[in-house]
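Side project, low priority. Logging it here so it doesn't get lost.
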Amino acid sequence: MNLGAPEMLLLGILALILFGPRRLPELGKALGEGLAAFRESSRQLSSEFKRQLEEETTVPRTPAAIPAEATLATPIQAAAPLAAVQAAESAAPESSLALETSPEPEEARV
C-alpha cells in the first residue's frame, strides 16, 4: 500500500481537524519517540537472537590437559559398587532377602 502526495495531504488535513493545531506537534513528537523506542528494542532483540544462535552453533572447547588419573578413576569407581552388589546378591541365600523386607502396614479403618 503506497501513499502518494494526495493521500498524505488528506491525512494531514484530517489530523489537523481532529486534533487541532496545538495537539498535532505533541502527537508527532510522541509518535517519533515511540518509533525510535521500537527500533531500538527491535535492534536489541535481533542482536540477542543472533548472539544466542552463535552460542548454540559454536562447539565448546575442551580442556587441553585432562589428568589421566581422573579419566581412569571415574569408570572404575562407578563399576565397583555394581560389582559389590552383584557379588552380595549371589552369595546371600534367598531367605535372608525375605527377612530384610518388612510387610506393608495396614491402613487404619474408621
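Brief comment: The longest helix spans residues 5-57.
Revisit when time allows.
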